[in-house]
Amino acid sequence: MIGYYIHHHGSGHLNRAKSICAQLRHPIVALTSLDIPRPHPFTKVLALPRDDAGARPAKTTANDALHWAPLHDEGLTTRMALIAEWIEQARPAAVVVDVSVEVAVFVRLLGVPVVVMAMPGERTDAPHVLVHQIADRIVAAWPGELYEPDWLRTHAHKTSYVGGISRFEDRQDPQPPQERAPTVLVLSGAGGCDFDQATVDATAAQMPEINWKTLGLRNGVTTADPWPDICAADVVITHAGQNCVADVAAARRPAIVLAQSRPFDEQHVTAETLRRHRLASVTTDWPDPHAWQCLIRQAQAADPNKWERWRTKGAAARAAEAIETTARRYAGIGAR
Questions:
Q1: What is the pLDDT of residues 144-168, one digit of tens each?
Q2: What percent of the chain has pLDDT over 90?
Q3: How far is CA 299 from CA 15, 151, 252, 286, in A?
Q4: Do 183-310 and 2-165+314-329 have the same topology in CATH?
Q5: Is the pLDDT of residue 113 over 50?
Q6: Which fold is adopted by the domain 2-165+314-329?
């Protein structure tokens, strides 16, 4: 059995976990504060209370050694106790953590091999140094030949760069767009963006020659299956979150990426990687209509087949293999 801890922020961690776990041969128990609807690939879901519901969280970083460990927080105490109880009873072969320094360190202190999902950005602070050091395997969901951060080079012997993981990897290849008026899709995820539906509406009113569509924006349209809209777009405008980038790469659509403010400059680093390797056009702020016209023309002129370099095909299977190899490697160690 393998445990899989899934962070509750946004939907990206859950979508990635579902893609990977669909490829795993072991029974999988999801450990999370998220409500996970069926169908899902998990054998069981262990519901954990939130650890961020306290009215006045105190000493959250344990003197900068951790990211989030508030003192006397009932949710934190209960969730860690539930994890320990489950490990004591289930004796998992390994636990995947996506993402939490505190859970990864706690699980390793209980004597269980830990697979840590890496995140882009400047992860050189003390908690990240600790979690990458204690990890038995690190999985990075991007191509290492395009982005190998200095802080991961130290751990190259135990890092698997598997490529971008998209939940749409096995969907039918997209067909060329049929609409004659250029269609631009503005795509967001549950983690949110600095721009919303009103931002797009104001721009669309000044650019009537473009057919503007949106998915996932605040106060806008949402859907459980954005794949047909992604494939039908002449250009996709999205943020630099790992899942959105992987989904656009899987569809091989021309893209404009607006990096959003995230801890450790995660999205800015990803966007710069895409710009440097000419996989997408990149901007930092919401442009004016004239700048949009230039960016859209630039994106349309790019070769969308370059997205193959993001290595979405087989990425989830490669991550699953890294996890199962780790579980097998340490099976029986220390047993009497």
A1: 999 999 999 999 999 999 999 999 9
A2: 85
A3: 27, 32, 12, 16
A4: yes
A5: yes
A6: Rossmann fold (3.40.50)
Domain boundaries, the chain: 2-165+314-329, 183-310
What b-and-e string marks burial along 159-191, b requiring 16 or more CB atoms within 10 Å of the CB? bbbbbbbbbbbebeebeeeeeeebbbbbbbbeb
336: pLDDT strictly greater than 50? no
Tell me the two tokens of residue 154: 């130290």
Q: Which two tokens stand for residue 122?
A: 């400047």
Q: Rounded to an integer, what distance in angstroms lies between the CA atom of residue 248 and that of residue 307?
A: 8
The pLDDT value given to residue 179: 58
Indicate the DSSP class of residue 43. Answer: S
Q: Where are the beta strands (DSSP E) in the chain?
A: 2-6, 28-32, 44-47, 94-98, 114-117, 137-140, 159-161, 183-187, 211-215, 235-238, 255-258, 281-283
**Nearest of 260, 297, 299, 258 to residue 279 by alpha carbon:** 299
Q: List, in sequence order, the alpha helices (H) in 31-172.
A: 74-90, 101-109, 126-134, 150-153
The CATH code belonging to domain 183-310 is 3.40.50.2000
User: Could you tell me which of 87, 137, 96 has the C-alpha nearest to residue 14?
Assistant: 96
Sheet harboring 281-283: ordered strands across?
211-215, 183-187, 235-238, 255-258, 281-283
Residue type, 97: V
